[in-house]
Design goal:
The chain is of the alpha/beta class. The protein has one domain: Rossmann fold, CATH 3.40.50. Helix content is 35%, strand content 27%. It has a 6-stranded mixed β-sheet with strand order 6-7-8-3-9-10, with helices on both faces. The chain has a 4-stranded antiparallel β-sheet with strand order 2-1-4-5, covered by helices on one side. Helix 3 runs parallel beside helix 6. The chain starts with 6 loop residues before the first strand and ends with a helix. The structure holds adenosine-5'-diphosphate (ADP) and magnesium ion. Adenosine-5'-diphosphate binds next to helix 1. The site of adenosine-5'-diphosphate has 10 residues, from helix 1.
Amino acid sequence: MSELAFLQVRDLCVSYGLSQVLFDVSLAAPRHGAVAVLGRNGAGKSTLLKTIVGELAPRSGSIALNLQDITRLPTERRIHTGLGYVPQEHSVFNRLSVRENLEVGALTNRDRSAIDQVLAWFPKLGRRLDQPAGTLSGGERKMLAIGRAISSSPKLLLLDEPTEGVWVGVVEEIAECLRDLVKDIAVVIVEQHLELALGVADYAYVLDRGRVALEGRSAVVRKDPRLLQFLAP
Ligand SMILES: Nc1ncnc2c1ncn2[C@@H]1O[C@H](COP(=O)(O)OP(=O)(O)O)[C@@H](O)[C@H]1O
Ligand SMILES: [Mg+2]
């Protein structure tokens, strides 16, 4: 996969001040389909996504998207090259309505049908278009965050714990959307819900204290006895 990967992350080292959090992390994602990033709390998953989107600058290593080196590109330029990002926290504008959140997402996009696609996936949002996002339930807010990112028609979507704190019924709705989405674009999904992550992704990386400790096809990683050890608190 690595030569033709759509996203190619090589040997990333990332620090907060003097404290190094990622050590030589390499990861690749194909043009279509998902890869999962697993690991216990504090392993460095969010740091990895923040570095790919450009919120954090790596000390060393490189990031290429579609064979273009984006390691030093500002975040907004990365967004324009087709990167979408759903952060773990603060992923919607609370004071804006559902409709406005989706329209902000679609600003970089000439294809307005992306919003219709979002509403087809998440009909609950369609019934709340004029409601401020801050008044949505946790699950609805996660749907909106994903919907907002999708409405920019990204080629690569980074999802940081899209089902965190979400009721199980909504987890299935989100899973269904993701299974559809990965037919068309590349997705990197950080997810605590192991079955969802390994169900959606063909390939998985397991981080342990900032290093890739285990990687492989999801079906193989799922059966690896070391997996639970790396996920145990
Ligand atoms: N802004 C920050 N400043 C200093 N340390 C941080 C910051 N954000 C995260 N960390 C530390 O980096 C490590 C990895 O955090 P994070 O990437 O959020 O892990 P995960 O998403 O896997 O739970 C943790 O030890 C965390 O405390
Ligand atoms: Mg995190």
